[in-house]
Amino acid sequence: MTDQTGQTGQTGPTRGPRWRAAGTAAVVATALTTALTATVTPSSAAPAATPSAPVTAVAAAAEDVGYDTWQRDCRAVMDAALPYLKERIAHSAPGEKQAIVLDVDNTSLETDFGFSYPQPANRPVLEAAEYAQEHGVALFFVTARPGIIEAPTEWNLAHAGYESSGLYVRGFLDLFKDVAAYKSEQRAAIESKGYTIIANIGNSATDLSGGHAERTFKLPDYDGQLS
Length: 227
Hints:
Blueprint: H1 20-34, E1 55-56, H2 67-90, E2 97-102, H3 123-134, E3 138-146, H4 150-160, E4 164-170, H5 179-192, E5 195-202, H6 205-208, E6 216-218
Parallel strand pairs: 1-6, 2-3, 2-5, 3-4, 5-6
């Protein structure tokens, strides 16, 4: 397949999304056996932002997407995101508290490409996040993962290099909510603490719909093949 950069991706034999169910199950099982109790306190709030047209990965769906193809497609999106972030951060209003919201699975971490725990960072996303956090931007993570694996998820993000200002996981009642609505509510909660969400980064429409971000950047999920 050909990605946004015009390169042809090669499919890896053992790192495609067909391993998703087993890989995710293995990670959850490991996390549950090693989890310690932890409390994550989300940081504060902000004025509502006006969303603009999302930057989206352009990549053909495939039955088995190779790791190299996925990384090139992620890189294409983040190569568009980083110049915007640099410009927006440089023109922060006096007293403005800027934030970026990120999804976890196959956005911040390489969830569907292996069985390991801790999961490695998705490098193109981490590089943009590192630039932001080095310039005083808060990083918030909003995930559909259940609260029972909150502590190992928080530890994994820190181990991968992210400096989290807050991790939002689903409580019991949230499991019965529409995922897009749940994630939108969490972004609204972040804004209510005084933050301006300058970017929302995810790989699914449910990560990005519902507003409460100035810009959205969609990584590939190949028609739902990636979680």
